[in-house]
Amino acid sequence: MSEKKPPQYASWTHGKLPLPELAEMKRRGQKIVMVTAYDAPGGRLADAAGVDIILVGDSAAMVVLGHDSTVPATMEEMLVLTRAVTRGASRPLVVGDMPFGSFQVSDEKALENAIRFVKEAGADAVKLEGGGATLSRVRTIVDAGIPVMGHIGLTPQSATMLGGFKAQGRTAEKAQRLYVDAQALERAGCFSLVLEAVPPPVAARITDALSIPTIGIGAGVECDGQVLVYHDLLGYQEGGPRFVKQYARLGPEIQAALESYAADVRSGVFPEAQHTYGIPEEELALFETGLEANERPITTVRDLDAS
Predict the structure, then answer these.
(1) Which positions ≥6 away from 271 have C-beta within 8 Å?
(2) Peptide bond into 280 cis (omega under 30)
(3) Cα–Cα distance measured from residue 99 to residue 95, given in angstroms and rounded to the nearest whole number
(4) What percentage of the chain carries pLDDT values higher than 90?
(5) N or C: which end of the chain has fewer CB within 10 A?
(6) Is residue 25 within 8 Å of residue 9, measured between CB atoms?
(7) Is the Cβ–Cβ distance between 46 and 39 less than 8 Å?
(8) How many helices, marked H, and strands, marked E, lie in the chain?
(9) Residue 266, Cα to own-chain centre: how many angstroms?
(10) How many Å apart are CA 301 and CA 307, to the nearest integer?
(11) How far apart are the first and last CA of the chain?
(12) What is the dihedral of CA 82, 85, 90, 91, to 10 degrees?
C-alpha cells in the first residue's frame, strides 16, 4: 500500500492561513478551495483535506435544519454552528455567514452581529450578501477590524426578489450591474467576493477587474477559487443545483449502514461480546447474592460473609 500523502495546503505549513495570503494566491494563479461546514467533525475533515476557507453558510437552514430556504436561519443558530466548526478546524480561515435580518436593519446592527461572530464563535471573518445596499455595512464592519467577504449574483436570502433560484447577470444590463457592484464591494473593503450562478464570461471579466480573489459557485473555472456546499458535494441526497459535482454518494451509504444496524438489533446479532464490558466474577456473585437476599444491599465482601 502506498503511503498516504499529506494534504496540499496553500503556502503555509502550520497555523492559520494568513488573510493576505489569499490575494497572493490570486496573484500566483493558485486556486483557492472553499467549502461549507456546520459542525466540528466537518471542520476537522475539511482542515485535514487542506481546504483553504471554511464557510459556515446559512445554507445550514436547508441542508441541516430542514427549511426550504436560507431565510429562517437565525443568529443564534449560526453562532452555535460556527462555534462548532472553529473547534474542529485550526488551519483554514473560518467565515461566518451573516443570516437574513442580521445586517439589513442598520450599520450598527450589522457591526454588532459581526462582532458576535468573531467574539462568541471564533470566526475569522464574516460574509454578507448583496451589492450597493450593503456597501455601508461592509465599510462599517471592516473599519472595526473585521474582514468581510462579499457575495453577489444569486443571493439566496433575496431569491424571491430575483425570481427564484436562477442564474444572474444574463443580460448586458444585469451583467454590468454585477460588474459595478463587484468593484464597489472591493473599494468598500471586502477581502474576497463570492460569485454565485453567474455566466462564466461575466465572472471572468469581474475576476480580471478585481485585485481581491473571487470564489465561484456556478460561475465557471476562471474564478480565483471555488466553493460547494458540504452536503451537496458529498452526495447526501440526489439532485441539487446543476453546478454541483458529487464527489461521493454518502446518502445511500449512510442509509444502508442504518438499515444494517436496524436489522442486527432486531435479529439479536448486535451487540456481540466484543461490544460489551465485563464484570469480575466475585463482583457478579455479590450482585446476584444481594438480589437473592432481597433485604439490604450488599456492598462489600464482609457483608456477603455476614449473610
Answers:
(1) none
(2) no
(3) 12
(4) 81
(5) N
(6) no
(7) no
(8) 12, 8
(9) 36
(10) 10
(11) 62
(12) -90
pLDDT at 240: 79
Q: Which residues contact 139 (CB under 8 A, 6 or more apart)?
A: 188, 189
Contact 151, 127 (CB under 8 A): yes
Percent of the chain with pLDDT over 70: 89
Q: What's the one-letter identity of residue 75?
A: M
* pLDDT number for residue 108: 98
Domains of the chain: 20-252 (3.20.20.60), 269-306 (no CATH)
> What pLDDT does 15 receive?
81
**Backbone phi and psi for residue 32, each to the nearest 5 degrees, phi listed first:** -100, 135
Q: What's the rounded Cα separation, in Å, for the pair 26 and 144?
A: 25
- pLDDT (0 to 100) of residue 2: 45
Q: Name the amino acid, one letter, at 229.
A: V
Residue 242 pLDDT: 87
Looking at per-residue confidence, does 133 or 260 come out higher?
260
80: phi then psi, degrees, rounded to nearest 5: -60, -45
Place of cell 442486527: 264
Active site residue 129: no
Distance separating alpha carbons of residues 59 and 55, to the nearest angstrom: 10
d(CA 260, CA 273): 18
Active-site residue, from 120, 173, 196, 272: 196
pLDDT at residue 297 tops 60: no
In the chain, the amino acid numbered 32 is I
Residue 200 pLDDT > 90, yes or no? Answer: yes
Report the chain's mean pLDDT, rounded to a whole number: 91
